[in-house]
Amino acid sequence: MATKILRPKALLGFSLAMLISLTTANLVFTLFYGFTISLTHSFGGLGGGIVILQEGAKSIHTSRVPLSLAKSLCRLPAVEAHAVTLTPLTLGGKPIVFRGVDTLNDYADKIVKGSLPTEEDLWVLLGEKASERLGLELGDIAVAGSPLSPSIVALHVAGTYRLGDLRDYEAVVPYEIGAELAGLPGGVASAIQVDGIEKGELESLIKSLYTLTIEHDAGRGRVVVLDSLNTPVAMFTMEEPGAEALQLPFGYYTIVYSESYLTANLTSILLTENRASTLRIPDEEVFKLKAVAPETEPPILQLEDGSSIQGRWIGNAWLFEAPRGLHTIMFGEASYLIPLIGDTTFNPRAVEEAPTRVEIRVNWQDGADVTDYLISVRDATGALLASIRSLSPLVTLNLPDGEYEAEVSKPPYLIKVRFRVPKQEAVTISLPVISNPSRIPPRLFQQLKAVTPIDASAATLSSLIGLTTASLVALMTSLTVLSIIAVFTVQKGLYSSAEDNFRVLWALGAGKGQILRMVWFKTLDLNLALGLGATYLALTIHEHLSFNLAFTILGYGLQVEPSLILTYSLMLSIASWFLSAAKLTPGMDAEA
Amino acid sequence: MAPLTDVALELADISKTYHTRGLKVEALKNIDLKVGKGEILCLMGPSGSGKTTLFKVSAGLLRPDSGRVMLLGKELYQLTFGERLSLRRNLTAFMFQEDLLIDTLSVRENVELPLIIEGYPRRRRVEFVERALEAVGLKDMKTRRPMEVSGGERRRISLARCLAKRPEILFADEPTSNLDTKTASAMLDLLKQANSQGATIILSTHDPLIAKQVGNIIYMRDGKLQNLP
Hints:
Largest interface: A-B, 20 and 26 residues
Helix content of chain B: 25-40%
Shape of chain B: globular
Distance between the termini of chain B: 22 Å
Strand order of the largest sheet of chain B: 6-7-8-3-9-10
Largest sheet of chain A: 6 strands, mixed, barrel
CATH class of one domain in chain B: Alpha Beta
Oligomer: heterodimer
CATH superfamily of one domain in chain B: P-loop containing nucleotide triphosphate hydrolases
Distance between the termini of chain A: 25 Å
CATH topology of one domain in chain B: Rossmann fold
Helix content of chain A: 25-40%
Shape of chain A: elongated
Radius of gyration of chain B: 17 Å
Structural class of chain B: alpha/beta
CATH architecture of one domain in chain B: 3-Layer(aba) Sandwich
Strand content of chain B: 25-35%
Radius of gyration of chain A: 35 Å
Largest sheet of chain B: 6 strands, mixed
Number of strands of chain A: 34
Structural class of chain A: alpha+beta
Number of helices of chain B: 7
Strand order of the largest sheet of chain A: 3-4-9-6-8-7
Number of domains of chain A: 4
């Protein structure tokens, strides 16, 4: 009876108008909301976590954070941190977001075609949607370009993956390539994703400055404090015994003693609170140098100051006792530099007949050659096999099979790299390049903020469409309210067209409650049916009109969640149904 | 005429003024009227004399500016809205001048409507509707829509809707208007028949011939009752 009291034509018009209104509202709403949700996945991954961004940066694409922070955070118990770069670039001439990652853990079991790249190479992994959109397949080679950097890189597609979120619209590259394409300076990342720590705790940690007090004796050299990327962040000369108080942000720091070519790690500290460290470097300390050579060929040790001392035969080697310094040991006509900063065994004979030729190249991170440095190579037992002051970036050594550690000392840098022979016959050692090194990390630290992936995505979305987060919330609220008003107006029109019939009901003795029961309650079924219909329609439109292609923002497509559309449709249809009750019996009580 | 045993409707000093676009129209002026239970009364007067207003005030559809309305022993406008609605729904019926049929419902459904509102069970509704349609001679037209029948038949549907619920008092506002003489006479017979079955009937007309057939006439002019024209 209820639907008969309402006019059939009006009912048909109402149903069509409701379907159109709800579907349109859904499409507009999900364009924003669905995008935000997907972007959240993109930031936090499926596991959530916290994102560290630069304060004031409008989005992750323009954010700058210290890369050393990621490595320092990993030193905290149960904390995992990964630096990422997210940069809008072009690949094969089409826009796409490039994600530079330092781990492929998230992608390990999500590869659809190809395989996880295992070697350092110029590879790119494409999300399934990105692959479709760009028309690139496994094995293709495409050029990546960036408006932010002059870099142009040819990348080969190593595989495609499917994660089921917005990251399927991205291209994944090794972190170093991502950073290069993003035009990031050395030691800087776009953002850091952190798991295993609360947001408040993390924020308090990264926003504070701590005092590191270093007490020391008098010495000839300098003390250098390096961050987790071996970048010097503080330096002072030990002229008199005393204490130096350094203001540093949270981080994992290595305190290094440095003197001409001689560099030594003294201690490492995870700075999470104010700390004091005592360094004792007595000038008069004497170290033992054990030189492996035949008893018949005694070597001579020439000290830094030019004086020479002879060794003592101890059955299998010659033993010298000498102060700290960069000395020279001579075996007949051959001479070697010995950095003596502790008890050392030197065994040059081990390499004399070695079969494998190993090339060690030393350069700066930007690719420039490093010259005038000291390089030492030790075997697995810690014995010094070679020690060379080199003016060339290339050092060639013959080494027997085994594991080795090469140590490049270029004060204030001290970089160690492990390698295996014969597996690695070419080894590259890079020294960090940071302009104004003593200031950059602290300056970045003061501008950091820890945000949830939702906040990060909201901020990014707002920057993409040129709105602040507050106005984005206002826009979303307005859209929701407008949607409700639109469907309410449609529903009101339905009842208005049957207003005469309601008056008949009232004249026949039906009260408001009765009219509501007779008509309004019965139309709930219709509203729910229309809500379901609008859900189906919206999903069908998404599917058939390929919104993934039509609506792309910086290479991202629109992620549609059916449950979201269903909830929104039903919410709107029920809200309009509820509000329309007021229109059903207008003025009847007043007339009575 | 049925014997007058008790008062069905009593109006005391009823006045009603309409204010429209700055104009003041006195529709009812100090009306006093008493109608006994089982009585049939014809209110006669020209168009605009205030008949419809008097009917609406008497039936609880329009609150008067002043005065007292006693309907079936209850002071109508002292009741709450719900009580007045209940009294109107359960004991009275109103045959509107404009029929007020719902075009989207069938003849049967239109007649059934007040019974649904009153809360009758379906079985009794079917029985009462059948009886009412039979009484007005429209049993064969119950599946038609109001748009598909003549003016006279619409009036009869309207009457059947009133009779179906067996009201104690029936207000029939111009039940014979726009009907030919034969149809008007038949309509009057139906009202008399209802009166003979115990219903108090108050009808209005501007047709002297119809009024004469009823016999018990009160004249109305310019919002006032008069015993003789």
